[in-house]
């Protein structure tokens, strides 16, 4: 009688692929990026911007554009977690209000697909990527090109928002989802603790769709 087959061990949790979506909120241009993490290896799937300058001054139309595009990206890449930059505190109250709405719509799109989110302060993102919380956008982009071996970016003035979003995603990877410094942020563990009924829905076993080659 043949010996019973022994179950194969499950792969180590740290080697399971995870897709992180990073977002740099904006009311004119919103940056987004998606990375796949497997252990310490990071592969950039895409990074780009949602350009809303041509939509005029109707803020509601821009919010709908953000929501629709976020859902398109989520359905295409199936991210496991969303990392989003917190709005900075400025002197223009109306600008802060609009920026907060844009951030909220991006978060709502993720939650509508049962994707947990974590919020990071801008200085935290810069410090994680460059070692200094006072780095400029150009310095962040330069460090990302070195760290992730990205090709030169011709449209630097436009794509600095995209590289900012990439920095948010990389910051989340460095933090391993443990962010307790920003009020309102939700770590993966806290999300599951607060919403145990979503455990099965949020950890589906469906295979990730391979991104289209650009």
Q: If you had to describe this structure to a student in words, what would you say it looks like?
A:
With 214 residues, this protein is of the alpha/beta class. The protein has seven helices and five strands; from the N terminus they run E-E-E-H-E-H-E-H-H-H-H-H. It has helices spanning 59-77, 93-112, 122-130, 137-148, 156-175, 188-194, 199-202; strands at 18-24, 29-38, 41-51, 81-85, 117-120. Strands 3-2-1-4-5 form a five-stranded mixed sheet. Helix 2 links the parallel strand 4 (81-85) and strand 5 (117-120). The longest helix is centred in the middle third of the chain and has 20 residues, at 93-112. The chain is globular. The termini are far apart. This is Crossover junction endodeoxyribonuclease RuvC. It is found in: Cytoplasm. Mg(2+) 2 binds at residue 85. Residues 193-214 are annotated as: Disordered. The active site is at residues 24, 85, 161.
| Separate helix tally | 7
Bulk shape: globular
Beta-strand level of the residues, as a percent range? 15-25%
| Average predicted confidence as pLDDT | 80
Q: What is the chain-wise order of helices and strands? A: EEEHEHEHHHHH
Uncertain segments of ≥5 residues (pLDDT<50)? 179-192, 198-214
From the N-terminal CA to the C-terminal CA, the straight-line distance is 54 Å
Largest sheet at a glance?
5 strands, mixed
Main β-sheet, spatial strand arrangement: 3-2-1-4-5
Q: Count every beta strand, where a strand is a DSSP E run of 2 or more residues.
A: 5
Q: From the alpha carbons, calculate the radius of gyration and give it in angstroms.
A: 18 Å
- Judged by helices, strands and strand pairing, the structural class is alpha/beta
Helix amount: 40-55%
EC number: 3.1.21.10
Active site: 24, 85, 161
Catalytic activity: Endonucleolytic cleavage at a junction such as a reciprocal single-stranded crossover between two homologous DNA duplexes (Holliday junction)
Protein name: Crossover junction endodeoxyribonuclease RuvC
């Amino acid at each position: 009688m043949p010996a019973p087959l022994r179950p194969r061990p499950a792969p180590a949790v740290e080697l399971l692929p995870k897709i992180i979506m990073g977002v740099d909120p904006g009311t004119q241009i919103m940056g987004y990026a998606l990375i796949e993490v497997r252990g310490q290896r990071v592969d950039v799937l895409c990074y780009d911007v949602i350009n809303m300058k041509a939509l005029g001054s109707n803020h509601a139309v821009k919010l709908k554009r953000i929501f629709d595009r976020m859902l398109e990206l989520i359905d295409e890449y199936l991210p496991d977690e969303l990392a989003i930059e917190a709005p900075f505190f400025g002197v223009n109250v109306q600008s802060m209000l609009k920026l907060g709405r844009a951030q909220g719509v991006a978060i709502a799109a993720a939650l509508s697909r049962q994707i947990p989110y974590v919020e990071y302060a801008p200085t935290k993102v810069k410090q994680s990527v460059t070692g200094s919380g006072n780095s400029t956008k150009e310095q962040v982009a330069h460090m990302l090109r070195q760290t992730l071996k990205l090709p030169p970016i011709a449209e630097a003035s436009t794509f600095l928002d995209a590289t900012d979003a990439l920095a948010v995603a990389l910051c989340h990877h460095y933090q391993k989802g443990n962010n307790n410094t920003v009020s309102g942020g939700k770590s993966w563990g806290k999300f599951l603790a607060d919403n145990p009924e979503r455990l099965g829905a949020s950890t589906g076993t469906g295979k990730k769709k391979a991104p289209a080659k650009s």
